[in-house]
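Me: Here is a favour to ask of a fellow structure person. Could you put it straight underneath, so I can go through it closely?

Assistant:
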Amino acid sequence: MSPTAPLVSLTGIVKSFPGVRALRGVDLRLEAGEVLAVLGENGAGKSTLMKILGGAQTADAGTLAIEGRPQRFQSPQEARAAGVAVIHQEFNLVPALSAVENIFLGQEKTPGVFLSRQRERDQVAALFQRMGVEVDLDVPCRRLSTAQQQLVEIAKALIHRARILVMDEPTAALTSHEVERLLALMRELRAQGLGILYISHRLDEVFAIADRVTVLRDGGHVCDRPIDAITRDQVIEAMVGRPLDQEFPSRRVARGGPRLEVRGLRRGTAVRDVSFQVHRGEILALAGLVGAGRTETVRLVFGADPRDAGEIRLDGRVLDLRSPRDAIEAGIGLLTEDRKLQGLVLDHPVRENFGLPNLRQWCRRGFVQRRRERSELDRHIAALRIRLSDPEARVGNLSGGNQQKVVLAKWLARDCEVLIFDEPTRGIDVGAKREIHQLMNDLVAAGKSIVMISSELPEVLGMADRILVMHEGRITGEITEVAQATQEQILRLAHA
C-alpha cells in the first residue's frame, strides 16, 4: 500500500447492460477526510458506479483499489468487510422489526447462547444521541415516519465503523432541521478521517458539505473540481450538457376564479379544520415540516382516506368523495409522495401503468382498445420526452425522472382539472426537474389548477403563486407575495 494512495481509487471503469453502456471508462478518487459529491442526471451512471464500489455489481473493465490495494468485490458482504458502507435512497428495512433489530440484523452479538440485546440497544441509543435525533427504539419500523426510517438506514452504516460511506440521496425525506443535523454529523465523520461519497440532487446541500465535485454525464466523467472552484450554474451546465437560463422557468398566467374549495377539513389530529381555495391557472403550495399534515390533507381531498368532517367543492359543486375513484371521476389527480409504492406498479410495463386510471375511456364492449391506448401513450411519451426503449418495458427499470413522467402522463391522459403534486421532483436530477416545472407551468397556462407539496423551499418559492404553511395539522399562515418571501419566513410559520 502506498502511503499517498487515495482511500478509494476507481480507474477506467466500464459497465454494460443489454443495449446500454452505463459506464464508459470512468475515473474517481476519494481521499480520507473528504466529502466528494458525485453528481449527474438520472441515468448518468452514478448508481451503477456506486453499486460496483458497494459490491452489488462487478465492472466489465477497469480497476478498483482501497488504500492502494486492488479489489474486486463479488458481493456487498465483501465490500462491507473492506470498510465500504452504502446508504441507499430506497429503504432496506424489515418493517416488522425495531430499529435496533434492523441495525444488527444478521450481525447480532451472541455471548454464549444469548443475544446481547441490551448492549445492542445501548449502542444504538448512543449513536442516535450523537446524531442529535430521536427515534423510538422499540416500535416496529413500519410505525416510524419516513424521516425516522431514513435515519435508521444511516445508523445501520455508521454502527459498524465503516471507513468509506456512500450516501445516495440520504436527505430526500428529511426536514430542513434534520438535514442540518445530518450535515453536522457528516462534518464530524470527515474530521475523523472517513471518506464520504455523497450523491444528491439538492445542490444547496452539495455546496454546504462537499470538498470536491465529480460530475458524470451519459456514463462518462465530464468534470472534477474543488467546490470553491465551481459555481452552481457551472455544475448544472456540466450535468445537462447545456446552460440553463434559470433554475425555475418563468410564468405569466392570469389567475381565474376558484376551482377547488376545501372547507373545514378534519381527520383526527392529523388534519384540523383546514380550509383553502385553489384558483384556475394557479399553483398553490402547501409548505411545512414533515408530519405537518400536508400529505394527510391532500389524501382527504383525493378520497384516499375518510374524513371526519369538511366539504370539498369543484367548480362550485359539492363532491362526495368516498374513494380515489370518485376523485378521479370528478377530475382530480394525485401524483403521490412515493411514486414507487403508491404511484406505479413497478413490475408491470409502462403501457399498463399509463392505462390504469384510463381503462374505462378506452374500453368498448368490455375490451380495451389497445391501438387507441398505445396511440395515446406514444403521444405522451413524445410530449413529455420520456426516455424508454419500449412501452412494454418494466416501469421499475426507468430512472426516477422518467418514472415521474409516466405518473404524470396517466393523469394528463385523464385530463384532470385539478392536479395534486406531492413532492413532484424528489430524487430527480436538475434537468428532469426543469422539465417537470415547465410542464406544471404549461398546465396552469392551459387553465388547470395545481396543489404542490414540496419540502424543498427553493422549489416552493420558485414555483408557487401562493403558499399555505401548515403545522400540526393546521394552516398557520398564508403568503401571497411570493416574490418577496424568504425561506426564513416559511420556517417561522412552520414552527408556529
The two ends are 56 Å apart (CA to CA). The first helix runs from residue 46 to 53. DSSP finds 18 helices and 22 strands in the chain. The chain has a mean pLDDT of 87.
